Amino acid sequence: MPKSSWSLDVQYRVRNLLKELLSYVLSYREDLQLQYKWEDEDSRPKLIVKTQRRSIQNLAHFEQQSHFYEAINRLKDLNIFEDRRFHTRGKDYWHFALRLWSKDQQINLREFDKEWQSRKTDKSKKLEYKKQPKIEKNNVIDDDSQSVFSRADNIHQRSFAIGTEIDTSSIIYLDLDSILQNNIGVFGNSGTGKTFLTKLLLSGLIHQQASVNLIFDLHSEYGRETALRNQKFNTAKGLRNLFPNEVETYVTDTESVLCRSVLDVQEFYLSYDQIEVEDIKLVSHELGISEDNLDNANILYTEFGKSWITQLLNMTNDEIQMFCQEKRGNKDSIMALQRKLLRLDSLKNMRTVVLHNYINQILRSLEAGKNVVVEFSPQSDMLCYMLLANMICRRIHSYYVKKTEKFWQTKNQKDAPRRLVITIEDAHHLLNSNTVRNTIFHTLIRQSWKFYITLFIVERYPSRIDKEVMSELGTRITGFLNHEDINAIFTDVASNQNLRSMMSKLNSSQQALIFGYGITTPVVLQTRSYDAKFYDEISNRCSST
């Protein structure tokens, strides 16, 4: 009897069968002759499948019939597969159960990888380790076989090389499809390289077309070319420079951009008639607006419609009193609301009337597969950042909910929403405990996985992020931090003593600990340099495709 093989090639094929089958089931597809249902048994659910062998082969992209039987045998060896056929010989009809760990695809894939690894002998592990590509001490990836993107012998189909393990110098690949199934956090003190690490990850997502991206760029660091720290004449390219046909940049401070003679951007103006009462509610904490103020805002909106803010700001005290007598509003509350909304006048991109709706334009770009950077100048009022981020994301959430519900009804892959990643810089402004429950991000952080949205937060002070938000981050990548912020990183993380020990290995720059989805085990790595060699890699691959 032939010996069971636990090689990487076999692992890739068996894992891909499991991945594609779960994807088919969880997407409610019906385009193959394949019947399925869930059967719960204690804490280990069973997936029951009835189908033809060729349907499984097509789904898993097996090139040979032998690969099908090989996969079935390995699943049996792992005690996952249960044959429920009455006749087991000479039949192409298959009826079986898979005893899984969860009804979540990524949890199953992660547990599968652990089980597979446990079946390998020490000898086979050493042989595989010797076959792994090594790099020089300067951590430069030289040839195309050691690409920053997918490797032929990597078990993940859509992967990205984020750096090298500091102990072994082996290249560390992230499974981009897995990492996007949950929210992501990148953390680190100033100067630890988190901005460049974020640019690396976003570049991988854009190039591999793993997602469409919306980036709220608070410090003008992601869209366009920026100066390097402590280097007068060297610059780092922005995403617009690397992907000129795939990235659009909108700026909220056109005067600042024009002063720098930058023309390759689009302006972004906002008008009062585009702001709804619900938008004001989302930034009520920043404006100091009470529930009573919001109740009276609804009275104004009912009377004046879209022009409610313009009408309010132009009303005299006598006109407010007359309005309250006729519409049963509260004079003191409306006058207070008027004073508080006057802050909107200070925003550089605010206009009384704008003929063009830039938020709708951004939504259309995202729907068409374009990546969008919304840039705020360093002099921007924080209110501008919070208002626009909430307004845009509230409309995105509404659109994605409707799009997803349609997909659930039709079960047609053409109706599936594009996977969207929303990157928030200095996230504590929007996600701190005092603010987050008033914002759209409280809804997104808890529901994003249902609606094809991933939040990607970038933060210097994780201790300022709400604990509930931290608990919703499936993947965390952290550079050097102080003690208080380290404690925040491990919110709701079981057995974190080992992770704390791994963090002690970090130097202050360009090293990070990564754990969670997208990677099999936690690892401390030297992050890939965001430099001319990386730019060339992107350019060469873009031209070849």
UniProtKB/TrEMBL annotation:
What Gene3D superfamilies would the database entry show?
A: P-loop containing nucleotide triphosphate hydrolases (3.40.50.300)
Residue stretches making up the Effector-associated domain? 9-117
Instruction: Tell me which InterPro entries the record gives.
Output: EAD4 (IPR045434), HerA-like (IPR008571), HerA_central (IPR002789), P-loop_NTPase (IPR027417)
Domain of life of the native organism: Bacteria
Question: In its UniProt entry, what is this protein called?
Answer: DUF87 domain-containing protein
Q: Which Pfam families match?
A: DUF87 (PF01935), EAD4 (PF19959)
For the Helicase HerA central domain, which residue ranges apply?
A: 162-396
Which organism does this record belong to?
Halotia branconii CENA392
